[in-house]
Model the fold of this input.
Amino acid sequence: MHHPINLFEYEHLAKEHLSQMALDYYSSGAWDEVTLRDNRAAFERVKLHPRMLVDVSDRYLNTSILGQSLKLPLLIAPMAFQCLAHPDGEVATALAAASAGVGMVLSTLATKTMEEVALPNSLQWFQLYIHKDRGLTRALVERANAVGYKAICLTVDAPVLGRRERDQRNQFTLPPGLHAANLATLNIPHAQGESGLFTYFAQQLNPAITWRDLEWLQSISPLPLVIKGILRGDDAVRAVEYGAKAIVVSNHGGRQLDGAIASLDALAAIVAAVDGRVEVLMDGGIRRGTDILKAIALGAKAVLIGRPVLWGLAVNGKAGVSHIISLLQHELDVAMALTGCPSLEDIDSSLVQLDLKS
Ligand SMILES: Cc1cc2nc3c(=O)[nH]c(=O)nc-3n(C[C@H](O)[C@H](O)[C@H](O)COP(=O)(O)O)c2cc1C
Done:
């Protein structure tokens, strides 16, 4: 295949670079994958109302999140086990993100340690799963703080792991030599007739977590708290009341509750409910610069991308991730020019919901 010129072509090409087990783990969604598909379809449903005859000769794609500047309104979503795609795994992803001036969220289930991945001058957050073992959870948070991660991103949509049937069929587990590097003594089991990750979640993660546990988490961590996996306005309001500094509207890339609303469809109501008190980010299905523009028009401060980063990593390591980011950057830049938006502040809701009376 020729050199990929968009994220879909990377996805296509990545299939040649991944084992079947890794490809299935990366690409699958829960059960019938309705939400996985709908995350994309939601972007295709939204139509743009571009504004003409605006001077767009200079365009500004920079923004800030939790007070930290970014060259693009983009972060890399937390994704487990990136060494399945490339031996440099999360280290390559972090270097590509930092050199492009975008953010990165490191998964609890990374295959490199958070110390190896840390780049204290860039926007890096640590994504947390609360384990039954509180001491282990506390140690993760303390290490993240010690090496310079700027926020704890608590994922709340996974009290149990969603059912990804391809992983179940493959009895997903990590190949020899790879392990969940931040969890030292724990490992992803080989489970008969079952995804090893499903078994891990059932054995180690705490399904009893409630809002009250956010108080505990904040009592052990000076870092700002970001809540990832919110799909309802009332939950978003509670997250704010319990001290969250930002919210990520997400359905975990369609990997948890199949049938859940598409992230983009959930966004506007959450932005309205939060009413400017915290920053709202979103992920799920971002594959084009126009998708970023649509999410911002509906009130997101920034977006996260998931799977495309894994495709970039699989095809060409750090350079592949860098290329994925620059493709999105160029597409967003062109989309802004064509909608009459010299800066991100100009991307308003009228671009997606034109009220002809006004
Ligand atoms: C292979 C893979 C692993 C993931 N691992 C995690 C994880 O460890 N923690 C987490 O909060 N989200 C995880 N996610 C969800 C992503 O953070 C993100 O919500 C989702 O991938 C965004 O959708 P997209 O892939 O369509 O861009 C994972 C997603 C994928 C594809």
